[in-house]
Amino acid sequence: MVYTKEFNLPTYEEITVPELNLGTAALIAGSVYYGQECLTQNDEFMLCRFEEKDPRKCLNEGKAVTACAVNFFRKMRKNCLEEFEQYSHCIDKSSRELSLYRCRNTQAVLDKCVLEKMNIERPEYGFYCKPRVHETSRPKPPGYQHLEFPDKAVPPNIDERTEARYGSRKHYTW
């Protein structure tokens, strides 16, 4: 990739943050609770990356995500260390693919501990796949255009439906 003289890379001090030194199994074990605890920071960072189209402009949001993750796992270690370690060891040792289905008993114990001591409830299945609206105080970038669709589809009025021409299709009549 070619860069011009006007292209400025961030300094080393700007991008240095404390790292999260955890293994894959521990990150998988805490990911659901971390997602609940740091939802706003993650959404703010992803919104910034989407709107700005330049990762250098989102360094502060990225630092906030990392700081939230470090604080969350410190709280996890303080409150539910034994249950968290049992669950992450189960994930690590039960299969080569780090499957979760063999560790449901230890997951239930960790869920109970996190709910009681940290007041974080495990979200329902598919929570992170659902669309959400994120409200931000960050101004929109210059040149950002909100897309308007003048020919968008009009939802049908259910009350104005007519009966089927040849009878109902819900059941057969003999």
From TrEMBL:
Subcellular localization, as worded in the UniProt entry: Mitochondrion inner membrane
Positions of region (Disordered): 137-174
GO (cellular component) term, any one: mitochondrial inner membrane
PROSITE patterns, per the entry: CHCH (PS51808)
This protein's record includes keyword Mitochondrion: yes
UniProt record, GO biological process: mitochondrial electron transport, NADH to ubiquinone
InterPro entries: NDUFA8 (IPR016680)
UniProt KW keywords: Disulfide bond, Electron transport, Membrane, Mitochondrion, Mitochondrion inner membrane, Repeat, Respiratory chain, Transport, Ubiquinone
Presence of keyword Electron transport: yes
Function: Accessory subunit of the mitochondrial membrane respiratory chain NADH dehydrogenase (Complex I), that is believed not to be involved in catalysis. Complex I functions in the transfer of electrons from NADH to the respiratory chain. The immediate electron acceptor for the enzyme is believed to be ubiquinone.
Family per record: Belongs to the complex I NDUFA8 subunit family.
PANTHER family: NADH DEHYDROGENASE [UBIQUINONE] 1 ALPHA SUBCOMPLEX SUBUNIT 8, NADH-UBIQUINONE OXIDOREDUCTASE
Protein name stated in the entry: NADH dehydrogenase [ubiquinone] 1 alpha subcomplex subunit 8
UniProt lineage: Eukaryota, Metazoa, Ecdysozoa, Arthropoda, Crustacea
Gene: Ndufa8
